[in-house]
Amino acid sequence: MPHHDPLSSSVTPGDVEQPADLAVLIGRFQPFHNGHAFLLQRALDAAPRVAVVLGSAWHARSARNPFDWRERAAMIAESLPPPDRARVEFIPLRDYYDDVRWCHALRREVETYAGPDKRIALVGHFKDHSSYYLSRFPQWQLISAENFAGINATELRGILFESANPHDALARLEPVVPTAVRLRLEAWMATPEFAALTDEYRQLAKDKAAWSCAPYPPIFSTVDAVVTAAAHVLLVKRGGFPGKGQWALPGGFVEPRERLLKSALRELKEETQLAVDEAELKAALRDVKVFDHPERSQRGRTITHAHYFALDRNELPKVEGSDDAAQARWVAVAALPDMEEEFFEDHFHILDSFLHVLQE
């Protein structure tokens, strides 16, 4: 069911005939800017009720996703006059890194909120390859809008993280974001959280610059290990950027002369010191899946092979964080749903693929 946020509610249609009963606006809004506000106004003009779908909900904070869905909902609500605010509903939607599943979840949430036999319009702008989803809902009326003033949220995040000081960043952002958003950004830039994300952004920029001389953008190959025992799964807490302090699967980059399984076993041993010999791990291998969504990693196109090892043990083998891992710990599988916002990149969804954590 959609989340009925206390910031919003629904009102009855006005006297003017509108092309839809509900208009839908989908985005990450990281952060909400005047281009988004223009699209939202188009949605408000098209229907008496508007559903704003907040993508990347329950995602751990990162330089790409610095604000959680509640903060983004507040930014949008505070940018609207009260009569319009009352017509807007916020629907958070997680990143599944699976287009079919994502589209199904979005349609289910929106149509449940709209009610039966309602006319639904989808408002959006075809800005680049990332806008392909607008054509995935042929049953809804599509209202295509132009790009207002050419504003791009990626560039705005660059201004936030690259400026010499907050005053300069806010001065550059003032013409392109609503006043309510600027005030929120000003408060946020004074927090330790902003400082940590700035460090992450700059480290990623440094890494990308090191590859800039390549004749084409690199594609990275990595491995991850999902290891279970006694209804627990083995996790590590990342010791460096990106994702410093976030929970993740043991894993890393494939070395030039390694086979994938050998690489997964090596990374598992290096990061967790798991007290299980290689023969037992190989016997416990149950599955291998490829995770290759183009947006799964901030580092660039990264394709990982996740290896699932199910240890037939009633006790938990000893582990100790080392190498890139600040900590290694066995975590109860039943506890994973409450940790979703603490996971690095798509690792929660890798776990869900093997362990069916979400129970949807």
Automatic annotation (TrEMBL):
SUPFAM superfamilies: Nucleotidylyl transferase (SSF52374), Nudix (SSF55811). The keyword Cytoplasm does not apply. It comes from the Bacteria. Gene3D superfamilies: HUPs, Nucleoside Triphosphate Pyrophosphohydrolase. Keywords: Hydrolase, Nucleotidyltransferase, Transferase. Residues 218-354 form the Nudix hydrolase domain. Signal peptide: none annotated. One of its GO terms (molecular function) is nucleotidyltransferase activity. This is Bifunctional NMN adenylyltransferase/nudix hydrolase. The lineage of its organism: Bacteria, Pseudomonadati, Pseudomonadota, Betaproteobacteria, Burkholderiales.
